[in-house]
Design goal:
Elements: H1 21-30, E1 52-55, E2 70-81, E3 92-98, E4 101-107, H2 112-118, E5 124-134, E6 137-141, E7 145-148, E8 158-161, H3 170-182, H4 193-199, H5 204-212, H6 225-251, H7 262-270, H8 277-291, E9 297-302, H9 308-321, E10 325-329, H10 333-349, E11 354-357, H11 363-375, E12 380-383, E13 397-403, H12 410-417, E14 424-429, H13 435-442, E15 446-450, E16 460-466, H14 470-482, E17 486-490, H15 498-516, E18 520-523, H16 529-540, E19 546-549, E20 562-568, H17 575-582, E21 592-598, H18 604-615, H19 619-630, H20 632-635, H21 651-671, H22 678-689, H23 693-701
Parallel strand pairs: 4-6, 9-14, 9-15, 10-12, 10-13, 11-12, 13-14, 16-21, 17-19, 17-20, 18-19, 20-21
Antiparallel strand pairs: 1-8, 2-3, 2-5, 3-4, 5-6, 5-7
Helix pairs in contact: 5-6, 6-13, 6-21, 6-23, 7-9, 8-9, 9-10, 13-21, 18-19
The structure holds adenosine-5'-triphosphate.
Length: about 700
């Protein structure tokens, strides 16, 4: 049961003063991504942390205030100058002075009565806001704060600045966060006292209060002790949650999966290529795991195009030879269909019966698949989320493979394994991620890596090109298309909305169509599955030569004879994503080109990212660079996809805390596996606070 001390925080944010349904929707946009999968609760606001501060301690005097600076001034009010009657375009000006000079405090659409009350002529007041120059004179337009000289203490001297979204005012958000802070109960301490002493940390509530009410800009820094304390809390919550999942998964013993090898041999014989040494060694690690009576819990990391699918197929075949069934779950429908079309012809050579199950299989077709899975008539199923559904039952699921791409959480992975009697599990990721991140996102899994690409692949030539060379680029592409090459054109990442994304893709499609006619296809996330398939088929078979696409092609799409990829507004993408996208070409034996089309001026990090892309094609190295440049959020996927990232911890500052937290979590659970001790109970509260409700539920499920 959830500790009752959490009750005041476990209520919808709409129960806070000043938060109606409309504001709630806006606030949910700034609540950290991991939490926003459900409706936000008041407690989530605690972790909406400021990214900077406004320092209002700066009191230079009017004459010394720099343009654009936010300053606080002690001034005397001289006179009011309301706009001429009926002329709303002229502002209301209040003239003030101090020892150093004079200025105007300016208001548009002012409420005159309110101004007369708050800035009475002759009174000494404090105004705080941004300095602007108007007609060569200093002025402050719409000060953020006005206080009488007596009330000056009410001014926040160091004011936190929060991430905002269109329509959400800082004041509204601050007020909501203030209420969440006020609802914090007296927490039991969940950290090890020894650790706290070493780190000289404040307690959890104290740390939050310090960051939300900073006394100094340094308090709002991930390196400050308060922030480190919270980061450690969060990392520990993650590690305990992963350890609980692992304990649950490995509690039931697995079984040895050993077959006679005939079907595996049939598939190997049908492959048009030899497996790489990397693929062979990953397979023998997987084989060894599967042969053991313990359950396999392994992560297969492969760089783009390294050939994970065939490794997955051979592992599944082993499970089937041993008398069980196997499931492969993909993050998108496009990918599920692609895996199916790769796997099906090979599997049928070995006499396996294979099915696909996504949201699209409906009615009688679906019923037939479900029955065949339950009776065991289907050996191998490829699918999407649809495989999680309760109606999906297996006769004997022996191996579950999750093609992860960071879109599934720990608990979803668990959900699929719950469909068998302790099946083995293999998680595949296409973005190589550094060891530290493997630990945080996946816990203690065994890792196999595909570090090598199939023989005969040529390096991809990568160039960056400013947008003003667009015409020249289109000319080159025109030549390439005339030679029969295939081109991906990736549309810019647009944050605002699905509509904006679509508009930009359609616009580019239209522009390229006017040049290349009906040899240009368009694929985007809003299309139906069938339409997407059709567009992909036409591109694969060469009916279209240029494919304009949003990032739906980012993961896994395999058209081996595509040789050029243009990434428009490359400066907006993270490194991991650029690397994934680039991996759509260079999958065959022809040489390929990746064009990073950008709009100058480039920021410093964008410049660095593009140069890493030009210099390296090693996904493992790029992942390390990404971690340095951007932090883990980008690396684990884009914000939109709800990644197993963090809300507070930032690994570029807090990676050193990981190992300690991991050991701490292990020790804790070794001593108190059900979290029943005093510290264990406190840890339960911690898990809930960081949204790990599912992990606590596992305890009850036993
Ligand atoms: N050993 C091999 N030799 C030659 N080609 C191979 C080999 N293994 C796989 N391939 C081919 O390489 C391509 C990429 O394989 P696959 O789609 O499995 O890659 P992946 O690891 O899933 O990469 P991504 O994550 O980028 O999609 C496929 O066309 C596949 O047929």
């Amino acid at each position: 049961m959830r500790p009752s001390l959490l009750d005041p925080l476990f209520v919808p944010i709409t129960s806070l003063d000043g938060v109606g349904p409309k504001i709630a929707t806006m606030i949910e946009k700034v609540v950290p991504a991991d939490l926003s999968a459900r409706n936000a609760r008041a407690g989530d606001l605690l972790f909406v942390l400021p990214h900077s501060v406004i320092d209002r301690r700066n009191r230079p005097g009017i004459a010394l205030a720099a343009e654009g600076a936010i300053v606080t001034l002690d001034v005397r009010v001289d006179r009011h100058q309301p706009p001429p009657r009926g002329n709303r375009s002229v502002p209301y000006r209040v003239f003030v002075h101090d020892d150093t000079g004079e200025m105007a405090v300016t208001f548009f659409h002012a409420n005159a009565a309110w101004l007369e009350r708050s800035l009475p002529v002759g009174r000494q007041v404090v105004v705080s806001g941004r300095m602007e120059w108007f007609n060569g004179r200093p002025s402050m337009v719409h000060p953020d704060h006005i206080a009488s000289a007596e009330d000056v203490d009410s001014l926040p001297l160091v004011e936190p600045v929060y991430p905002l979204t269109a329509g959400l005012h800082a004041k509204v958000l601050r007020r909501a966060i203030g209420q969440a802070l006020a609802r914090m109960p007296q927490w039991p301490e969940w950290q090890d006292p020894e650790f706290l002493r070493r780190q000289t940390c404040p307690d959890f509530a104290g740390a939050l209060r310090r960051i939300h009410n900073p006394a100094d800009p340094i308090d709002v820094s991930p390196e400050a002790v308060a922030w480190r304390r919270l980061a450690y809390d969060e990392i520990l919550a993650g590690q305990v949650s992963l350890a609980l999942v692992r304990a649950k998964v490995s509690k039931r013993a697995g079984r040895p999966l050993i077959g006679d090898g005939t079907r595996i041999a049939a598939i190997r014989a049908a492959l048009p290529y030899r497996l790489t040494a990397s693929q062979e060694s990953a397979l023998s690690e997987i084989d060894a795991d599967m042969a053991k009576p313990d359950r396999m819990l392994r992560l297969l990391q492969g760089d783009v195009g390294s050939g994970k699918t065939v490794v997955a197929l051979l592992a599944m075949t082993r499970a089937i030879e041993a008398g069980g069934q196997a499931a492969l779950m993909a993050p998108t429908e496009i990918l599920a269909r692609q895996h199916f079309s790769t796997i099906e012809p090979l599997a049928s050579k070995a006499g396996l019966s294979v099915a696909i199950l996504t949201g699209r299989e409906k009615g009688r077709e679906r019923t037939a698949i479900l029955q065949a899975l339950e009776s065991g008539a289907i050996d191998l199923v490829v699918g999407t989320h649809a495989l999680f559904q309760e109606s999906v039952q297996f006769r004997d699921l022996a191996l579950a493979i999750v093609d992860e791409q960071h879109r599934f959480g720990v608990h979803q992975r668990l959900a699929i394994t719950a469909k068998g009697e302790a099946p083995d599990m293999l998680v595949m990721t296409a973005t190589p991620i550094p060891r530290t991140l493997v630990l945080t996102a996946f816990g203690d899994m065994d890792v196999s890596k595909l570090t090598e690409k199939p023989a005969g692949r040529r390096p991809i030539r990568t160039v960056s090109l400013p947008f003003d060379r667009y015409e020249e680029l289109v000319g080159r592409i025109s030549d390439a298309v005339a030679e029969g090459q295939k081109v991906y054109w990736i549309c810019p990442l647009v944050e605002e909305s699905e509509e904006a994304k679509l508009a930009s893709a359609e616009e580019r499609h239209a522009a390229l169509q006017s040049r290349f006619g009906d040899r240009v296809g368009l694929v985007h996330g809003r299309m139906s599955g069938r339409d997407k398939d059709e567009v992909m088929r036409a591109f694969k078979e060469g009916e279209t030569r240029v494919l304009v696409a949003t990032t739906v092609v980012e993961v896994g799409v395999d058209v081996p004879d595509a040789t050029i990829i243009v990434i428009e507004h490359a400066e907006r993408f993270g490194l991991a994503q650029l690397h994934q996208l680039r991996g759509r070409v260079g999958r065959g034996s022809k040489s390929s080109t990746c064009v990073l089309l950008y709009k100058p001026p480039l920021s410093e990090t964008a410049t660095a990212r593009l140069s890493v892309m030009r210099e390296s094609q090693d996904g493992f190295r790029i992942a390390e660079e990404d971690l340095k440049l951007r932090g883990e959020g980008e690396l684990l996927g884009t914000k939109q996809s709800g990644t197993p990232g963090f809300q507070v911890a930032r690994l570029e500052f807090h990676a050193d805390l990981l190992e300690t937290a991991r050991q701490d979590a292990r020790l804790l659970l070794a001593r108190d596996p059900e979290l029943k001790s005093e510290r264990g109970q406190a840890i339960r509260a911690l898990l809930y606070l960081f949204g790990k409700d599912e992990a606590v539920r596992l305890l009850r499920a036993g």
